[in-house]
Amino acid sequence: MDKITLQRTEKLHPLVRGEVKQIIEACNAALNGRAKVRVTQGLRTLAEQSAIYAMGRTQPGKKVTNAGPGQSIHNYGLAVDICLIIDGKAASWDTAKDWDQDQVADWNECVKIFARYGWDWGGNWKKFKDLPHFEKRMITFGNSQVRCTWRVLSKMAKDKAGYVKG
Predict the structure, then answer these.
(1) Residue 33: its pLDDT value, please?
(2) Domains and CATH numbers, the chain
(3) Contact 164, 76 (CB under 8 A)
(4) The pLDDT of residue 38
(5) In whole angstroms, how far apart are CA 116 and each of 10, 51, 54, 111?
């Protein structure tokens, strides 16, 4: 796992940090060398979300999200965006390329691994496909499972560090 990915992973919700590291390691192992996963975005502040939401609305550029502040699972540290780093140099978001030549697109190998751990892929969304995006479906607090939607998470109490708690 590269240094940037490790730093971004350490800012995720404490309940998913270890799991995301396992997912990234499993993806990297499955990709056999040329491509490695990099987390390009993890925890996102409300101010960062507000700035991204403004793009294509009140700021120049195209719309990149439909989620306002507090409406992104990134705001709760329970989502990651990824890219593939090819040969340690170039970033790729190519979802069809088979860098390891095993007859399966490298991106799809990662999608399947994230799914095994209970993460949803933004590429499966109907209205606004977000190919680099993965978010946790359910999180367990003690004996309780919570669906990871922004409406549920926004109503939950936060710990001293600002993460939702059960």
Answers:
(1) 80
(2) 3-153 (3.30.1380.10)
(3) yes
(4) 98
(5) 21, 33, 34, 9
